[in-house]
Amino acid sequence: MKYEVVHCPSVLIIIATLFFHLLLLQPSLSVGFKIKKPKRILVTGGAGFVGSHLVDRLIQRGDSVIVVDNFFTGRKENVMHHLGNPKFELIRHDIVEPILLEVDQIYHLACPASPVHYKFNPVKTIKTNVVGTLNMLGLAKRVGARFLLTSTSEVYGDPLQHPQAETYWGNVNPIGVRSCYDEGKRTAETLTMDYHRSAGIEVRIARIFNTHGPRMCIDDGRVVSNFVAQALRKEPLTVYGDGKQTRSFQYVSDLVFIFHIIYKMENLMECWKTTLPYTNIFHFVSY
Ligand SMILES: NC(=O)c1ccc[n+]([C@@H]2O[C@H](COP(=O)([O-])OP(=O)(O)OC[C@H]3O[C@@H](n4cnc5c(N)ncnc54)[C@H](O)[C@@H]3O)[C@@H](O)[C@H]2O)c1
């Protein structure tokens, strides 16, 4: 069984390394660039911030995309520009309920991502992560689709190690007010791996760190949106604590670009892992 983890630094370094390895060192891998027939892709949470950018990219690539979203934090306006495109479908549906769709790939993003939103109804949040992920894995098994779970850096809890290496399993709290999200994502990862081991589904788990960009919710209480909102209101920027804490940030198009590459190419993990220095922008696990 393959077990590889990648810590991605800046996208420019990644692109350069990718091309170097693909085209110069390991030409046999260049098969990843062959033009393939368009796919039918399900994006859960595709009307949300990250999901809508992913949808843009998939549609641009020529694939057919089905978005399933209950619009809890997502908005129709985020994907409005695709309405009328025969390659785009938008379904209002809560993933806590099963759904049957014929698809080749599943990108599973549906889950409120900011503390303001996931603490609003914590039981619903954990249900979305557990029951919703079970439903999507069940679908992947039934139709033989490859599955990508968007997990989070929060699976490390309140980490005692910075940056977090994959050998570090976290410093977690199962009973706190944020546990509906953190523990929900940990369970979603467990389910993903169990489906992989027991049903042979090809899976990817992306542990995403702080992402920002257009369509992010201005009032979600996260650090970048807080800074932007305060700057727009010409207020002083609030820095919590002693100001010495560090975070990893990435722009949304960089995240979506990496999703896209990693989803398609299977054999690059090892070369990235052995070449690149560790930086927590996101962690990627491929099985
Ligand atoms: N944005 C980040 O910095 C970040 C960081 C770590 C992890 N993530 C993960 O990435 C994914 C997307 O995050 P985002 O920032 O785009 O959040 P978001 O809140 O903008 O998007 C989540 C989408 O899921 C939908 N949704 C929520 N519950 C649902 C349900 N039960 N059924 C159907 N749809 C549902 C929402 O309506 C929304 O459209 C999430 O899984 C999140 O945990 C994001």
TrEMBL record:
Topological relation to the membrane, as annotated: Single-pass type II membrane protein
Pathway(s) the chain acts in: Nucleotide-sugar biosynthesis; UDP-alpha-D-xylose biosynthesis; UDP-alpha-D-xylose from UDP-alpha-D-glucuronate: step 1/1
Highest taxon of the lineage: Eukaryota
CC per GO annotation: Golgi cisterna membrane; Golgi membrane
EC numbers, comma separated: 4.1.1.35
A GO molecular-function descriptor: UDP-glucuronate decarboxylase activity
Keyword tags: Decarboxylase, Glycoprotein, Golgi apparatus, Lyase, Membrane, NAD, Signal-anchor, Transmembrane, Transmembrane helix
Cofactors (names): NAD(+)
Subcellular location: Golgi apparatus membrane; Golgi apparatus, Golgi stack membrane
Annotated NAD(P)-binding domain residues: 42-264
Principal location: Golgi
Reactions it catalyzes: UDP-alpha-D-glucuronate + H(+) = UDP-alpha-D-xylose + CO2
Transcription regulation found in the keyword field: no
Gene Ontology BP annotations: D-xylose metabolic process; UDP-D-xylose biosynthetic process
InterPro entries found in the cross-reference section: NAD(P)-bd_dom (IPR016040), NAD(P)-bd_dom_sf (IPR036291), UXS-like (IPR044516)
Signal peptide: none
Annotated PANTHER family: UDP-GLUCURONATE DECARBOXYLASE, UDP-GLUCURONIC ACID DECARBOXYLASE-RELATED
Family, similarity comment: Belongs to the NAD(P)-dependent epimerase/dehydratase family. UDP-glucuronic acid decarboxylase subfamily.
Role, per record: Catalyzes the NAD-dependent decarboxylation of UDP-glucuronic acid to UDP-xylose. Necessary for the biosynthesis of the core tetrasaccharide in glycosaminoglycan biosynthesis.
Name of the protein: UDP-glucuronic acid decarboxylase 1
Organism: Lupinus albus (White lupine)
